[in-house]
Structure formats: structure tokens, C-alpha cells
Write a structure and sequence with these properties.
Blueprint: H1 10-145, H2 149-162
């Protein structure tokens, strides 16, 4: 087995060592600082991202607590509005109830007054009818009594004497 890669000679080994040295020199001179700079930049970017995430998390907590406070205030305001609406509706109902009671009392008084007026009118009409009937009956009785002229003259004389002209 005479493979030069497995058992290299001193010349190959020397040139490999020289090319490796040149590679290490080039990498140390230009490659290594660039890699370190890139790693440093990446490290800084990751640290900045972590800080930004922490700040964002804190802001989200603040926003969440602010939203919760706003939600609590909104619920409180809603409850207050509902309470005011209930109070207003109860007040409107109570006002309507009072007005209805007043209207009922007024209508009752008007009905009583109307009934009394009708009662007085009926009594007056009844008295008029009784007076008319009494006059009719008296007229018929007098006609029946005064068929003779002597009785009529006596009645006229007695009535004239009662009245002073």
C-alpha cells in the first residue's frame, strides 16, 4: 500500500503544513476578526431582541391591566346607566300613577256633581209635573164642583176676600 495520502512523504507533509499555516494566517488576519465581529453583532442583536421582548411583555402587562381597568370602569358605568334608567322608569311610572289617581278623583267629583245636578233637575221636573198634575186635578175637581153657578159664585167671593187687592 503505497498510497501517498495515507502515508505521505516529508515533502507533501511540509507543503501541507505550509499551506495550513498560510490558511491559518489568512484566517487569523481577516477571517477570525470578521467571524468574531459577526458573532458579537449576533450576540448584541439577540440581547436587544430579548430586551425588546421583555419591554413588550411589560407593556402588554400594562396594557392588559389598563384594559382590565377600562373594562371595569365600563362595566361600572353600564351598571350606573342601568340603575339610572330603572330609577327614571320607576319615577315615570309613579308620576303616571299619581296623575291617574288625580284624574280618577277629578272624574269622580265631576260625576258626583253631574249626578247631583241631574238629581236636582229631576226633582225640579218632578215638582213641575206634580204641580201640573195638581193643577189639572184641581181644575177637574173645581169644574166638577162648580157645575152650578151658585157654587162658583160662592167660591169666587171667598177667594176674593182672602186676597187683598
Amino acid at each position: 500500500m503505497n498510497n501517498p495520502l495515507i502515508s505521505p512523504g516529508i515533502g507533501v507533509f511540509f507543503w501541507m503544513l505550509v499551506s495550513f499555516g498560510i490558511l491559518v494566517f489568512i484566517l487569523c488576519k481577516w477571517g477570525w476578526p470578521m467571524m468574531l465581529k459577526a458573532l458579537k453583532n449576533r450576540e448584541t442583536a439577540i440581547a436587544d431582541s430579548l430586551n425588546a421582548a421583555a419591554k413588550a411583555r411589560e407593556e402588554m402587562k400594562l396594557i392588559k391591566s389598563g384594559k382590565e381597568e377600562e373594562l371595569r370602569l365600563a362595566k361600572q358605568e353600564r351598571d350606573e346607566i342601568l340603575h339610572n334608567a330603572r330609577m327614571t322608569s320607576e319615577q315615570i311610572i309613579e308620576d303616571a300613577r299619581v296623575k291617574a289617581s288625580e284624574e280618577i278623583l277629578r272624574m269622580r267629583e265631576e260625576a258626583i256633581e253631574s249626578i247631583n245636578n241631574e238629581k236636582l233637575r229631576a226633582m225640579h221636573d218632578l215638582k213641575n209635573q206634580i204641580a201640573t198634575l195638581s193643577i189639572d186635578i184641581a181644575e177637574k175637581l173645581i169644574k166638577a164642583e162648580l157645575v152650578s153657578s151658585e157654587a162658583a159664585n160662592t167660591l169666587i167671593q171667598s177667594e176674593l176676600e182672602k186676597t187683598n187687592l
